[in-house]
Amino acid sequence: MPKILIVNDQEQVRELVEVTLQSGDYQILQASTGQQAVEVAKAEKPDLILMDVMMPGGMDGYAATRIIKSDPETRACTIVMLTAKGQQADREAGFEAGADDYFAKPFSPLELIKKVEQLLGIAE
Amino acid sequence: MDHEQTLARLESEIRRYADDYARLLKSKEEAEAASQALHRQLTSYAKDLRAVYAELKHQYEQTKAAHLDTIYRLSLAAEYKDEHTGQHLRRLSRYSALLAERVGLPPKTVELILYASPMHDVGKIGIPDSILLKPGRLTEEEFTLMKQHTVVGADILAGSDSGVIELGRTIALHHHEKWDGSGYPAGLKGKNTPLAARIVSLVDTFDALTSQRPYKSAYPVELACNIMFQQQAQAFDPKLVDAFLKGLDRFLAIRAELGGPVAVSLDEVRFSERDRIAGLDRTSTGGAGTNGWRTAGSAPDAIT
């Protein structure tokens, strides 16, 4: 069963994403800060990380992505940045940090499901 | 000196207040921004929900249409030996729905009857061709076998979860019952025969009378109505006959729309043996007004 890590400081958003992805066969993990994301990534080796950009506590999504992608142990994780709609600069910063893909907020749950299936290679 | 110290203390306190206030304002702004982002996110969920609902509804309609189409085609298959075009089924289905509507049944039931009525004769599939296609009168023995098409049809349609098929079963089983209890297979009397079966029985007879068969010509509408009016106490629910005759123009409109068979004129009618034995060739051809339904006060709105 693929493991998916949801990184977001807003609990309500994490819950929304988790409920949305429960339509598939996934094990869902959550982290509320960049620091926590790095720790969970190292401990659990998720297949996919849905990473928010703006997070309090000193480490934002870019920084966390950079660390995860530079660690040989966690490098294989596919990282999707969740960026605000139309923020081209955010997207570029995400790719620069090593993200594999991006997804615009507010996101469509149906498209999120499709994107996740596609990235995990289980799309129809 | 005291003055200056007091001033300095006041100033630093005001500064602290201002800082606190700025922090408060900022956290309030952040909270508001987060709340708005969440709201936009929920709106996006609602939109997707609407799309999923519309898609499901569309798929439901398609599945339902496919289900009804399958039923109709299987009914056609059963009818194919003696009727190739399916015109009889199409007319019977529309007539049944119209009569159901005219006696005040709710739209859902009318729709059910529209789709269930074509199944009334599926049991014919179990009747030997020698009987089914025999021109002329059946012997007693043959007729006993022919009657089995009601029971065979009900067996074929029995035990379905589909409401349409279940109603089809009821209609198949009872569409040859008669109002006075002399019908088959159960000999049900009056309202003991389910309404849908009483409806199909009436319109099936009307369509048979006004259609050509190997053993009879297509009777003119007036003759068919006369025969049905005379039989109403015996064969049909009088209320249904009344509703049918009063709305005759609308039944004839369906008949015209679906390309109903062309009737021959009264003097050229070739009666079936059964109707000749019943004396209908002598009593029913006198035209309207002698002994027919027109004089009984139940005249239709118009006759085309």
- Poorly predicted runs of chain A are none
Strand residue content of chain B: under 5%
| Nearest-integer average pLDDT of chain B | 87
Instruction: Please report the two chains with the greatest interface, counting residues with C-beta closer than 8 angstroms to the partner's C-beta.
Output: A-B, 10 and 13 residues
Specify the biggest β-sheet of chain B.
none
Structural class of chain A: alpha/beta
User: What is the mean predicted local confidence, pLDDT of chain A?
Assistant: 92
Largest sheet geometry of chain A: 5 strands, parallel
In sequence order, what are the helices and strands of chain B, one letter per element? HHHHHHHHHHHH
- The helix-and-strand class of chain B reads mainly alpha
> What is the strand tally of chain A?
5
Give the overall form of chain B. Answer: rod-shaped
Task: Give the CA-CA distance, first to last residue of chain B.
Answer: 118 Å
SSE sequence of chain A, one letter per element:
EHEHEHEHEH
Low-confidence stretches of chain B: 285-292, 294-304
What is the helix content of chain B? 55-70%
Number of helices of chain B: 12
Q: Over all CA atoms, what is the radius of gyration of chain B?
A: 35 Å
Description:
The complex is a heterodimer of chains A (124) and B (304). With 124 residues, chain A is of the alpha/beta class. Chain A has helices spanning 11-21, 34-44, 61-70, 88-97, 109-119; strands spanning 3-7, 27-31, 48-52, 78-84, 101-105. In chain A, strands 2-1-3-4-5 form a five-stranded parallel beta sheet, sandwiched between helices. In chain A, strand 4, helix 4 (88-97) and strand 5 form a beta-alpha-beta unit. The model of chain A has no long low-confidence stretch (mean pLDDT 92). Chain B is mainly α and 304 residues long. Chain B has helices at 2-79, 87-102, 107-116, 129-132, 140-157, 163-174, 195-209, 221-230, 238-246, 248-257, 273-277, 280-283. In chain B, helix 2 packs antiparallel against helix 3 (107-116). Chain A binds chain B through residues 10, 12-13, 16, 105-110, and chain B through 34, 37-38, 40-45, 47-48, 51-52.
